[in-house]
Amino acid sequence: MRTMHSAVKLKDWMRAVVAVMLVSVLAACGGGGGSSSSNNSSTTLNGGSLPASPTQQPIAAGAANTAVITVGQGLSGVVNIPTVSVTICQPGSTANCQTINNIQVDTGSFGLRVVASALNPTMAQVLQPIQLNGGQLAECATFADGYTWGTVRSASVGIGGETATNIPIQVIGDKPQSTVPATGCSGTAQNTASQLGANGILGIGTAPTDCGATCSDPATAGTYSNYFGCPGTVNCTRTAVPTAQQVTNPVSKFTGDNNGVIVQMPPLPDTGAPSATGTLVFGINTQSNNTLTGVQTYTTDAFGDMNDSVFNGTTVQAFLDSGSNAYFFADNSIAQCGGNLGSFYCPPSAQTRSVTLVGLNKATTSASIGILTAQTLFGGGSNFAFNDLAGQIGGNSSFDLGLPFFYGRHIYYGIDQTQNGANPGGQAPFVAF
Fold first, then answer.
1. Of 123, 373, 409, 412, which one has the greatest count of Cβ atoms within 10 A?
2. Is 196 helix (H, G, I), strand (E, B) or coil?
């Protein structure tokens, strides 16, 4: 899942969520028989082939710098939604807190966003909106098929045994629809838990804030900012916002273990599983359980993209995004499902595709992915974790390695510490696996 974090970057996951919600409802009503095909069976592959699946297992989530990731039926029956529990506290308090479950782990966005309805009345009252230039500060986080709209508030955020004190978060859907700006916030509102498929989004990708210089510089903020000032809580207009008041990646503000994360998911059978349990590890090379060993590192742009990657002879912007519930890329040689399955791929036999990932450091690898027909994967209605689900993406300039790529792997994200180039000695953003 990608928020609009600059003038030109715009990616989404909502199209996939909506399609899978429809599929899940149909399956729950008796659409198709049980998933009886065995792993790598001739029925499943139907004459095709899949690449060998990675086999890394997650470490146990017992240390203070870890949290349990769960993929399952969740709130709305949306497949491949990895979630964690997040504790939100009133700034300065360790007693006035609330733990919220089913927060999506999203390495493709930056900052914590919580649906207003998930907050209890006390917490909703004590988390005060940030005031800027005489009005409430609000944000429209825009996706290709919609947006989240709500105030920016200060909160302390705890995940596992780590805490970020007094950081800006977004509370989604806490402002009336009538306050949505006419310019810079268009499409379908995604402001409820049922629309998101989760109680919120935990953006823990490579950027420390969700917009950076584009939204802090008045020269660009007036046209491109995600942020809006709302004098009297209405009449919201675009505004420049210092980075310290932008929605912030909580990991970057932990006392320690704050230079990155590792997402570890278990391997899966080809036809999926009812659930999957992984581990989110905080910090890289800061503890004995988060060493950067046995992997290849790919430096990226500030937002985790590998812009010189290649698929089918075309240069693509590739990214590893746990917030996308499938692989998304353009390949007209693979049949789309149509109907309720929309633009998910439904090839008659199992398929293998490869994308060449190229980091800014010129590190290169060929990543192979497997694709099974979505019709078979969703046929049983009881599986919610899949490692070979794929679908079409608009245009041929992007390659989204979504959650299926994470199963059986430990994937590292190094948070950008160069401060947009102002600190050249700082850690450059990177991914590694």
1. 373
2. helix
CA distance 129 to 123: 12
**Residue 6 CB: number of other CB atoms within 10 A?**
19
Kindly indicate the confidence band of residue 116, based on its pLDDT and cuts at 50, 70 and 90. Answer: very high
With CA atoms as reference, report the closest residue to 276 among 223, 325, 333, 229.
Answer: 325
**Within 10 A of 66 (CB to CB), how many other CB atoms are there?**
26
* 307 Cβ contact partners less than 8 Å away, ≥ 6 residues apart: 301, 315, 317, 360
**Beta carbons of 346 and 340 less than 8 angstroms apart:** no
* pTM, rounded to two decimals: 0.91
Token pair for residue 355? 């994308």
Contact criterion met (CB below 8 Å) for 65 and 264: no
Q: DSSP code of 127?
A: S
In this prediction, residue 7 has a pLDDT band, given cuts at 50, 70 and 90, of very low
Could you give the CA distance from residue 206 to residue 377 in angstroms, rounded to a whole number?
32
| Pairwise CA distance, residues 387 & 80, whole Å | 9
Determine phi and psi for 211, rounding to 5 degrees. Answer: -140, -45
Domain boundaries, the chain: 14-58+288-432, 66-253
Q: Which element (helix H / strand E) includes 100?
A: strand 97-106
Cα angle for residues 154, 158, 164 (degrees, 5° grid): 55
* CATH 3.20.20.140 is right for the domain spanning 66-253: no
| SS3 call for 13 | coil
Any residues with CB less than 8 A from the CB of 122 and at least 6 apart, and which? Answer: 96, 98
* pLDDT (tens digit per residue) in 247-298: 999 999 999 999 999 999 999 999 999 999 999 999 999 999 999 999 999 9
* pLDDT band for position 24 (cuts 50, 70, 90): very low
Same CATH fold assignment for domains 14-58+288-432 and 66-253: yes
Q: Environment class of residue 7 by beta-carbon count within 10 Å: exposed (0-12), middle (13-18) or buried (19+)?
A: exposed
Taking the domain 14-58+288-432, which CATH number applies?
A: 2.40.70
Q: What is the pLDDT of residue 36?
A: 34
Place of tokens 């060449």: 356
- The single-letter DSSP state of residue 40 is T
* Spatial distance between the Cα atoms of 335 and 164, rounded to a whole number of angstroms: 46
For residue 360, give Cα distances in angstroms to 69, 228, 272, 356.
30, 34, 34, 13
Residue with tokens 């729950």: 28
Tens-digit pLDDT profile for residues 177-197: 999 998 888 888 889 999 888
